[in-house]
Every structure is written in structure tokens, then in C-alpha cells.
Design brief:
Elements lengths: L4 H13 L7 H12 L5 H12 L4 H26 L3 E2 L2 E2 L1 H5 L1 H17 L6 H30 L5 H26 L4 H28 L2 H4 L5 H4 L5 H9 L2 H10 L7 H14 L1 H22 L8 H12 L3
Antiparallel strand pairs: 1-2
Helix pairs in contact: 1-4, 2-6, 3-4, 3-8, 4-6, 4-8, 7-8, 8-9, 9-15, 12-15, 13-14, 15-16
Length: about 325
């Protein structure tokens, strides 16, 4: 991950310089709290990587990159409320500490603050970026609603799931890359190819998250083990299990996914089926598929291949992370 360090450092410094000091502190302190937890900050890093690829000014790209990070964390605050999640990045979630009402208000404030970070862009670029950013925000909401719908929907298909994660995760990665490219003066064609690269990398990233929810090291992952099973989420693991399970295994899956309980028997029973059918191997193959699609779009970007190596490394990291 050394190739990301200079970008992560810039993002960290930018967040430190943009600490919220206004009142009421009950509204703003939770924003500083969630932003201080760090994480990999991949989305703002992607914006800076894209700007750097086209020889752009990283300082000019920094505020738009922070806007993407702020918006992403707004979605996490609200996701955690909807999922009743106790942890985020190994820290108590905001609504757990401060209540649901403060969580909603703080999330809303962070979303609005994200838009303010584009204000320094020249008018034509500002309009272009805001149009994409607003479209992306709506798609994220659509993806989240699809995710909620799937919990009680019996006939979820693979294509439905892939649409959902494209909206919920892929589009923000893609927008980060396109915005970074635009800020650096890239052509619309190159920016669009980076956007499509980002969609596919984002899908691969979310599929890996679904995988790690069950098969990852939970101490490093920072979330409740098998939280998706507890929430009856129709992730790709569940859909592949339904596809390859025998009738007896399907009946057991249907039984467990008809109950919303964190009973260890449920977690054990579902995990046992996943392992028996080798869902983990099938998921890894799907991640590789989307990695290859991403690389095809990266190849179309009209920059010499040597300068694209950080993007190749990024995709490889997403494919191979074993936390």
C-alpha cells in the first residue's frame, strides 16, 4: 500500500485542517469523531490518484476529494442507523453513542458540508462536478433502498444484487475518479473510462466486503461477525448458495433467512452451507472477473501504461486483501 501513502497523508492533513469547531458541539463533534477513525480513505485517494494521473494540482483536487470522503461518511452514519450496527471501524457507531436523532442530524450536516467543499471550483467545472455528484447521491440512495428491499424479497437475482452494489458502492468510487480527472483537465473520454474502471473496482470492493463479513478476520475488519447473515442481507454469498445448494440446503437457508436473530445456531448453520458449497471460491472468481473488466477500461485511458501502475496496484490490493 506504499503507493497510496502520499495521497492518504494529504487526505489526513486536509481532514485535520477542516475540523468542525462550530456550535452546537452536539451536532459537530460526532462528525469529527467519525472522520478521525481514518480507514483506508480509498475514495478521496482515488480522486487524488486521478488528478495526479493527468498531471493535475493535488492541492486543487484536495477539497473535492474531501467532499467525497465527507459524503461517504454521511452515508455510513445513516447506514449504521438503518442496520442498527454497533461498530464501525472497531469504534462504537455515532447513534450508539449519541442516539438516533443526533445520528440523523449529524449525517445530514456532513452531507451538506460535502457540497460546500466544491465552492472554489471555477463556474463551468463547478456545474459539471455538482451535476455528477448529485446524480451519484441519488443513485446511492436508490442502492440503499434496493438493499433494504432485498431483506424481505424472495426472488432476488444476481443482476439485481449487482445493480444494487453498483449504486451503493461503485458509483461513488467512479465519481471520485471522474471528478479528479476533470479537476486535472482530462478529456471527457478519458474521465469516462476512469469512471467505468471505478464502477468495476467498486463492485469488486463491495463483493470482497461481503466475503470478509463471513470469512474475514473480524478483529481487523472492524464489524460484527456475519452481520449480513444476521440482517438477512441477500449478498452474493447468499445468492450463490441458493444457486448451488441442494434442496435440503435451500430449505435450511430459507428457514434461517426467515428469522432476524443473532442466534449462533443461525450463523453456524448458514456458514456451514457456504463452506460446503465453496461459496468463498466462487466469490473470489467473481472478484477477479470485475477486476479484469476494470483493467480493460484502464487500458483505454490515453496515458502511458507506466503511469497507470498505481491503478493496477489498487485493483490488485482490493482483489487480494486478506483482513
Amino acid at each position: 500500500m506504499n503507493f497510496l501513502e502520499k495521497y492518504q497523508k494529504l487526505v489526513s492533513e486536509g481532514i485535520d485542517k477542516n475540523q468542525f469547531t462550530a456550535k452546537p458541539t452536539e451536532l459537530y463533534d460526532p462528525l469529527n469523531y467519525i472522520l478521525s477513525h481514518g480507514g483506508k480513505r480509498l475514495r478521496p485517494v482515488m480522486a487524488l490518484m486521478a488528478a495526479d494521473l493527468f498531471g493535475g494540482d493535488l492541492q486543487k483536487a484536495l477539497k473535492p476529494a474531501l467532499a467525497i470522503e465527507f459524503f461517504h461518511n454521511f452515508t455510513l452514519i445513516h447506514d449504521d442507523i438503518m442496520d442498527e450496527a454497533p461498530l464501525r471501524r472497531n469504534h462504537p457507531t455515532i447513534h450508539t453513542l449519541h442516539g438516533v436523532n443526533t445520528g440523523i442530524l449529524s449525517g445530514d450536516a456532513l452531507m451538506i458540508q460535502s457540497y460546500r467543499l466544491f465552492e472554489d471550483l471555477e463556474p463551468e467545472l463547478f456545474k459539471k462536478v455538482l451535476t455528477l455528484f448529485s446524480k451519484t447521491g441519488v443513485q446511492i440512495c436508490e442502492g440503499q433502498q434496493l438493499d433494504v428491499n432485498f431483506e424481505t424479497q424472495d426472488n432476488v437475482k444476481n443482476k439485481d444484487y449487482l445493480t444494487m452494489i453498483s449504486y451503493k458502492t461503485g458509483v461513488l468510487c467512479a465519481a471520485a475518479l471522474q471528478i479528479g480527472a476533470w479537476v486535472a483537465g482530462a478529456s471527457d473520454e478519458d474521465a469516462e473510462n476512469l469512471y467505468q474502471y471505478g464502477i468495476n473496482v467498486g463492485v469488486a470492493f463491495q463483493i470482497m466486503d461481503d466475503y470478509l463479513d463471513v470469512f474475514g478476520d473480524q478483529e481487523k475488519f472492524g464489524k460484527k461477525h456475519a452481520g449480513d447473515i444476521f440482517e438477512n442481507k441477500k449478498t452474493i454469498l447468499y445468492l450463490l448458495a441458493q444457486k448451488y445448494a441442494n434442496e435440503e440446503e435451500k430449505k435450511e437457508l430459507d428457514f434461517w433467512y426467515s428469522k432476524k436473530t443473532d442466534n449462533v445456531d443461525k450463523i453456524y448453520g448458514v456458514e456451514k452451507i457456504f463452506r460446503k458449497i465453496k461459496v468463498d471460491e466462487k466469490v473470489q472468481q467473481l472478484i477477479e472477473k470485475y477486476n479484469q473488466k476494470a483493467q480493460k477500461y484502464l487500458d483505454r485511458v490515453s496515458i502511458e501504461d507506466s503511469k497507470k501502475q498505481p491503478f493496477v496496484q489498487l485493483a490488485e490490493y482490493l482483489l487480494n486483501r486478506n483482513i
